[in-house]
Structure formats: C-alpha cells, structure tokens
Write a structure and sequence with these properties.
303 residues; binds 6-O-phosphono-beta-D-glucopyranose
Length: 303
Amino acid sequence: MNLVDTLNQQHALNETLQFREQAEQSIVAEVRTAQAEATIALQGAQVLSWRPVGEEPVIWLSPQARFAPGKSVRGGVPICWPWFGAHPGSSDLPAHGFARTVPWELEFTEVLAGGEVRLVFRLIESEDSERLWPYITPLLCSITVGRSLGIELTTRNEGGETVELTEALHTYFQVGDVRQVDVVGLDRCEYLDKVRDFQRDTQSGPISVSSEVDRVYLNTNREVVIKDPVLKRHIHIRKRGSGSSIVWNPWIEKSRQMGDMGEDGYLHMLCVESGNAFENAILLEPGAEHSLWVEYAVEAAGD
Ligand code: BG6
C-alpha cells in the first residue's frame, strides 16, 4: 500500500480530513469543515493554506512555490527549528534549521468537541538530522484548524545535557496590499534590524512597509494585529511561550534574488513570525519541555 493510502486508512476523518499527493513526493492533509479549510504538508508539518469559511485566504503561499523533498517551500507556515536564521556557529548549515525540510509523521488526528480538526505531527529523526543536531529532543507540532488556527510546537529534552535552541513559526500572511497595512502591538519594543546590520532600535507606533523590512522584536509576548484596509480585516496573532516577534517583507530586490516569490508576491504577503530568537533563546534542561503556541483569528474591520 502506498503512503497516501496508509495515511487515509489510519488518519482520515470521513469527509473532514483526507490525504493526497499534491506534487511528486509531496503529500498533504486536506481539512474541510463547516468552519474552515486548510492544507498541511507532511514535509515540515507545514501549513500551506488556511481559510475560515466566508473569508479570503489568510495564509499566503507563493504562486511560484516549489515542492521538492528537502527543499523549503515559499509561503505557508514554515517551522524554523532548532535554530532561527543563520546557524550561530556555522554558515554552512541550513538557514532556519532543518525542521521545515524533513518529513514528519502523524501521531494522531481528531475532531474536537467544537468541530475543529486537530492533527499532531512528530518530526522524524534521521542520521542527517542527528549530524546537524546531536541532541535527543523529540519535536511535536499540534495544528488545530477551525475558525481560528492554532499551532503548538513542543520540544522535549530527553538527553542528559542542557540544550539551547531558537525557533519560529514563520507565518506568511496574505494581505491586500502590504503598502497599506499597519502592524500594531509592537510599539516601544526593542528590535534588531537585519536590514541595518542588526542595529538595535526601538519601535515607535505601528509598523508600515514601504521597503525591505527584516526585524526581530525582542522580549515581547504581546498580541500583534495586522490591520488590512484593502481586505477590510484584522488578523490577530496571539502567542504564548514566545519572546520574539519577527516582521519580514523582502520587497522588490530580495524577491527577485529569491526567485520563488512570484511577480509581485511581496505586495500580497507579510511575515509576522512568533518565536524565540537571539536573547530569547530557550535553554532546555534535561527532562524539561518547552511549548511555543500561536493562535490566528480574523475579524472584519472597516479601517
Ligand atoms: C526571516 C528572516 O525570518 O526569513 C529573513 O528574518 C529571511 O532574514 C527570511 O530572509 C526568509 O528566509 P528563507 O530561508 O525562507 O529564505
């Protein structure tokens, strides 16, 4: 039996959750309920789409996203783990760690009392991943699809030494026109500005985007809201177990260099990532567990 059939046999939930191959060697779970639709790839346990019924898509996936084993996918909710950004010690190692480019397996799926569908994934360790990360730290990702989207990433240290890790849920949100968007909730927060060689600065007022933005906001657990006057909605980003929020838009030049953003993709996306980076790195003692939790919800708005 092939993997899709096995997954359907073991984890499909009648009409609400099915598995299919969407590109060669790329298997996705498709959720369809009265509340929402979502697609989640087995590679990276990466949410590729989520749309509450009656809404425009909330998660942006590049029209030129490429799907290939071991390659990162431009858009959705890539999981950056066990390091965020460049590896602290070696520039040869993959940016944002390896969790987003390896296969995950399903632990279980269920329909919750409120009608939401929950899928719990576990990262599959391999000799390759052990070479990159020689620690015993099983990683689980629980994804709850409903009128809101919940994602919880749990790392457990089952080894004998303390482990330091950084991480992020690198969510690409769909916006009508990024030039008109305001991001609120980070006023007076300190940030590292990657565009200005990691200079430290303090946010004043809402964030707006009119050129490349690449900032790691530190020591903040606040809710962040994307106010989108074109799609007439607010996207609420709530989080726990996260000290950093990252705001990223590559703008024109970087998009061209990346080659998988699509013609004017940068105008219709904005990454607001929740994580733990730089001085918010997580120190996990033997036997300890850490969870990074986010919840996204959409509210209609006239502004
Ligand atoms: C952001 C980083 O989180 O991810 C940026 O702050 C980076 O510096 C971006 O360019 C995209 O990374 P990647 O590896 O998916 O191209």
